[in-house]
Amino acid sequence: MMKNEHVLHVEDLYLYFVTKKGIVQAVDGVSFSLPRNSATVILGESGCGKSSLARAILRLLPRNVHTYTGKIALDGQNVMALDEDTFRDQIRWVRISMVPQAAMNALNPVLRVGDQVAEPAMVHLGVTKEEGWEMARRMFRYVGVPEGFLNRYPFELSGGMRQRVAIAMALVTSPSLIILDEPTSALDVLTQANIMNTLKRIKQETGTSYILITHDIATSSDLAEYVAVMYAGQIVEMNNAANFFSQPLHPYSQKLMASVPRLHGKQTLEFIPGRPPSLLSPPSGCRFASRCPLRFDKCDQDPPTFHLNGSIVKCWLYEHEGTLTTPASETIQPEE
Amino acid sequence: MTLTDPAPVTTHIAPGEPLLSVRDLRVWFELRRFGLGVAGYVRAVDDVSFDLYEGEAIAIVGESGCGKSSLMRTILGLNRPREGRIIFDGRDISRFTREELRWYRTRVGYVQQDPYGALPPFMTVRSILEEPLIVAGVKNRQARIERIRKAMQEVKMTPVDDFLGKFPHQLSGGQQQRIVIARAILLEPRLLVADEPVSMLDASVRVEILTLLRQLQQDHRLSVIYITHDLSTVRYFSERIFVMYAGKIVEKGPVDEILERPKHPYTWALLAATPEPDPRNAHMFREVPPGEPPSLITPPPGCRFHPRCAKIIQGVCEVKVPPEKEVTPNHLVQCWLYDPDVSPDPPDM
Ligand SMILES: Nc1ncnc2c1ncn2[C@@H]1O[C@H](COP(=O)(O)OP(=O)(O)O)[C@@H](O)[C@H]1O
Ligand SMILES: Nc1ncnc2c1ncn2[C@@H]1O[C@H](COP(=O)(O)OP(=O)(O)O)[C@@H](O)[C@H]1O
Ligand code: SF4
Ligand SMILES: [Mg+2]
Ligand SMILES: [Mg+2]
Fold first, then answer.
1. Which ligand 1 atom sits closest to the C-alpha of A19?
2. N or C of chain B: less Cβ packing under 10 Å?
3. Which residues sit with Cβ closer than 5 angstroms to ligand 5, an ion?
4. With contacts defined as CB-CB under 8 Å, which chain B residues touch A220?
5. Tens digit of each residue's pLDDT (9 = 90 or more) over B45-68
6. How many CB atoms lie within 10 A of CB A299?
């Protein structure tokens, strides 16, 4: 595959934080590629580094960064090489935008929502206020907020409507990639279904791509074409949705799938005892080993990433079936 | 007294009688406007009736704002009903003396939605759990410690000594919720009200907490009211489901009936919107009824779901409140589609 068929290519990405207790290895050598106009879900329990990965991609870094290295290519362009001013002018919010975790509660309470959606367009695309409002109007139609709401303040909207406004803000600059961090976790099921429908329609109509970060596996399947599973700062499986939801590879993925409540069927609900390890001093072997029902001797060593049938899995169980390749060629095959 | 002692109060219910009966309950909140006195009412609970039996778990499912917490807080004696009765153990709770009310509070445990908000931040786990015992008059310090230990073992906060001196912020969300549950079962209640006990938690922790609640329910033959907006979890947790919409319980029935043979168009909508992990989902759009739940200050006349309902029977649904009909044994629905005089041919989902 040629590189610029990928909207995003990430290679050996590291993001560590300094804290009083030591170095937090929040993103620890992550590599993956996303096809253009695709939707990829990043799953994992809290504290596995999902939000940190999003911040690393958008270069939204806190003050206490210890290490920030790796390669990030957007539409084939190495954006890691850009200086901060250029990155801010040309990339962040312009070509990659984000709906942050709890965005619907983070709207500015004293600004009309129309102004808040127009603002990114005015700041990053340099359009006039009138043009900005015209774009905001168009975005409201896209995300399904009545145009009359442009003049309202956030408190005058329901949670679902505020979340749509937050999505409109991320959409107004027509980015090629939108990162959605837990966009529906706090919402009711009908509102959630509505927003997933909206995201799907936007993807079809605008050609944008999504990274959807969530711990809610059932809801993620409403959007997912690809699934990446993060555990203790690393990606332990990447697969297309058809494979993942029917036969996840990594034991962690299998355990996650077994913990999904289902409306129908007789299977019992399981949970994964214990917690993910501290990212201050993660175990030197497989990071999931202490919770893994299938672990064996080899698991004391850090497993490499194996490739099989277009999927990627970081687990010794696949040593013989899988092959080792360099991260540069890491890509997953679309489902048939 | 230890946790396994029987409750020190004689029971008033005859065999086959419910532990809790809610009858024609209305909970309205006054809306006050400056200088105008009462400007209207938020009709958070409007004509709700149901029975709950010993050892039974029911789930109340509905979107936020439909009145679930108002209903629970009224059952707990924290809100005054405008109309209707709540009968616990054969007695009307509105007639309770102060002494009886204190007893009632020991019979009913409460698990709130937000564990962190439910726990006083400057108290240790030990003092949080000791307080209800002191209030309940357990004078012996050693006896209190024994009961705290026992409750903490039941919620699997072990080794107990590792946690007794901790403050809430030093615990994970799941551990905080375990402490809230320990506090709720400390006085050996007969009824446990769990108001969205897992909605603030990570998906993986949710299953752990629900499994724990189910085990406690079975071990102690507790009656449980489990409130949730997530239909996918109820099957693992309850025997019956009540579906609530805009202040009313619109459908009640055994879990399998509601999940496999739902009757009310609102229940259909909830089920259709609840995803299962299936890769085909990404290639289809979900059917969602238009609009949002109505204002409870000026709810729509007739059936409260009618403005959003695809099956509306014009001239009926928007005029008259649908009566409750029993479609199959113990499966009740408030919808005109199941009134043979109005709709001779009831639909299937
Ligand atoms: N600015 C920061 N400084 C120090 N530690 C952080 C910072 N941001 C996140 N972390 C830590 O990094 C780890 C991963 O966090 P996060 O990326 O938020 O995970 P997730 O989104 O999967 O829940 C956690 O242990 C968290 O406490
Ligand atoms: N103390 C109160 N005073 C006024 N209105 C209230 C009060 N408590 C709840 N309400 C209103 O009653 C309605 C039902 O709320 P609630 O019972 O919390 O619903 P749920 O728990 O289903 O989300 C909402 O419109 C809410 O704003
Ligand atoms: S009563 Fe009428 S409007 Fe209400 S749910 Fe039934 S069919 Fe729809
Ligand atoms: Mg996060
Ligand atoms: Mg509530």
1. 4
2. C
3. B 69
4. 277
5. 999 999 999 999 999 999 989 999
6. 21
Flag if A262 and B232 touch (Cβ within 8 Å): yes
Query: At residue A257, does pLDDT exceed 60?
Result: yes
Q: How many Å apart are CA B27 and CA B70, to the nearest integer? A: 7
Selection from A217, A187, A183 nearest residue A200 by Cα: A183
Instruction: Return the C-alpha torsion angle B110, B116, B117, B119, nearest 10.
Output: 60
pLDDT tens sequence across A65-123: 999 999 999 999 999 999 999 999 999 999 999 998 888 888 999 999 999 999 999 99
What does the alpha-carbon distance between residue B176 and residue B182 come to, in Å, rounded to a whole number? Answer: 10
What is the rounded CA–CA span in Å between residue B252 and residue B234?
13
Which of A23, A52, A55 is the best mutation target for the ligand 1 pocket, counting ligand atoms within 8 Å of the beta carbon and taking the most?
Answer: A52
Find residue B99's DSSP bridge partners.
none
Q: Give A306-316 pLDDT, tens digit per residue.
A: 999 889 999 99
A55 neighbors A15 (Cβ within 8 angstroms): yes
The span from the first CA to the last CA of chain B, in angstroms, equals 53
Distance CA B195, CA B201 (A): 13
Decide: helix, strand or coil at residue B140.
coil
Which pTM does this prediction carry? 0.92
pLDDT digits (tens, 9 = 90+) for B317-331: 999 999 999 999 999
Please state, in angstroms and as integers, the Cα–Cα distance from residue A20 to each residue in A24, A64, A104, A278, B167, following that order: 10, 10, 32, 14, 20
Q: Is A6 helix (H, G, I), strand (E, B) or coil?
A: strand
Q: Do A271 and B282 touch (CB under 8 A)?
A: no
* Residue A37, amino acid: N
Alpha-carbon distance of B183 to A324, in angstroms, equals: 52
Ligand 1 and A281: CB distance under 6 A: no
Residue type (1 letter), B189: P
Residues B239, B241, B242, B246, CA torsion sign: positive
pLDDT, position B11: 59
Query: E strands along chain A, which residues?
Result: 6-19, 22-35, 39-43, 65-74, 77-78, 96-99, 177-181, 209-214, 226-231, 234-240, 306-308, 311-313, 323-324
Least confident of B9-18, B195-204, B313-322: B9-18
Give CA–CA dist B343/B328, Å, rounded. 17
Tokens of B80: 């005054």
Option in A201, A224, A271 nearest B208 (CB): A271
Rg (CA), chain B: 22
Domains and CATH numbers, chain A: 6-95+179-205+214-329 (3.40.50.300), 103-174 (no CATH)
Largest CA distance in chain B: 68
Alpha helices in chain B (DSSP H): 68-75, 98-107, 115-118, 125-135, 141-154, 161-164, 173-185, 203-219, 255-260, 265-273
- Strand A77-78 and strand A65-74: the pairing is antiparallel
Longest Cα–Cα distance of chain A, Å, equals 66
A43 touches A227 (CB < 8 A): yes
